[in-house]
Amino acid sequence: MMTRGMTNIVKTTTRLICGVIFIFGIYLVSHGHLTPGGGFAGGTVMAGAFILLVLAFGDDVKHLRKTEEGSSTLENLAILLFLLMGVAGMLFGANVFFKNFLEAGTMGELFSAGVIPFLNILIGIEVAAALFTVFLAFVIFKEEEK
Fold it and tell me: Distance of CA 84 to CAs 1, 75, 89, 116, Å?
């Protein structure tokens, strides 16, 4: 059985900084087409926020079970939507897989890159879910050894 978490100091600190870490991950994903970052970097930061919660609180975090079904399902859904965006480029564009079929806005603005921000969001969700699934798998295997 997993432990009940760490000390109250660690739990309180985690409560304070976990939201900030997650929001920073969202910022990296949403501004990835304008600044360094993007889906992969933002996804790793978001997964780090979830992993920090599990490390600090143990199995008290949202009734953590010994399965990774939820994060694995989210990962698969993000991959499917990513591929559907590529197919949509073929259907709405010039028969090119991942064709940018949305209008480009003004350069330097948040909505200036057509479908690229949406692809960054899907990559961020997929990477966060995949890394969290790997972390849960390590936790589950570690618990089965005992």
Answer: 40, 14, 9, 14
Helix (H, G, I), strand (E, B) or coil at 56: helix
* The two structure tokens encoding residue 56: 């600090």
Going from N- to C-terminal start, the domains of the chain cover 8-145
The answer to whether the beta carbons of residues 124 and 43 sit under 8 Å apart is: yes
Distances (CA, A) of 135 to 52, 71, 125: 11, 11, 15
pTM: 0.76
- HSE (side-chain half, CA atoms, 13 Å) at 38: 9
User: Which residues are CB-contacts of 105 (< 8 A; sequence separation ≥ 6)?
Assistant: 111, 112, 113
Residue ranges of the chain with per-residue pLDDT less than 70: 1-5, 34-36, 59-70, 93-94, 108-111, 140-146
